[in-house]
Automatic annotation (TrEMBL):
UniProt domain VOC: residue ranges: 9-137
Extent of the signal sequence: none
Gene3D superfamilies according to UniProt: 2,3-Dihydroxybiphenyl 1,2-Dioxygenase, domain 1
Record CDD domains: VOC_like
Name recorded for this polypeptide: Glyoxalase
InterPro entries registered for this protein in UniProt: Glyas_Bleomycin-R_OHBP_Dase, Glyas_Fos-R_dOase_dom, VOC_core
Superkingdom to which the source organism belongs: Bacteria
Length: 147
């Protein structure tokens, strides 16, 4: 971050999907991300103020394209991406995903309980198998805390 850009800068992430219509239904409908620019083969979504772009990529899908890493007793899918929400917003999203029938790879729960990095987290995939982690801290100033 530079001194002339206060606050967080939005990130940009492009990722493969097997079907643009399924991506629109999941990212726009279930996740509630407003749609931006698009073409027949890609679509921008506003992911909590950040730009993510689903690119229809025939023959390249994320499904089963990740390994796992043990974290606090769970096999965390790698790679994955997500956002840090406020706790109330995280709980509302977990309820919305559950109601929509989304299958969790790691169910919504609190990890590192009682430790500096205590956080609410959940893992799931989009229809193309891209792994997503959504997390929340009751105290966001502890995002990078080590003690």
């Amino acid at each position: 971050m530079t001194q002339d850009s206060p606050g967080l800068s939005p990130f940009h992430l492009a990722f493969p999907v097997h079907d643009i219509a399924a991506a629109r239904e999941f990212w726009g409908g279930i996740m509630g991300c407003p749609e931006g620019r698009s073409s027949d083969d890609w679509v921008d979504f506003d992911f909590y103020g950040h730009q993510i772009v689903a690119h229809q990529t025939p023959g390249v899908v994320a499904r089963n394209a990740h390994g796992t890493n043990p974290v606090d007793g769970h096999d965390v899918p790698v790679p994955h991406f997500g956002i840090v929400l406020g706790l109330d917003e995280w709980k509302a999203l977990a309820a919305r995903l559950t109601e929509a029938g989304v299958t969790f790879q790691i169910e919504p729960h609190v990890r590192f309980e009682g430790q500096p990095g205590e956080q609410a987290t959940m893992f799931f995939t989009d229809p193309s198998g891209n792994a997503i982690e959504m997390k929340a801290f009751s105290d966001r100033t502890k995002l990078f805390a080590t003690d």
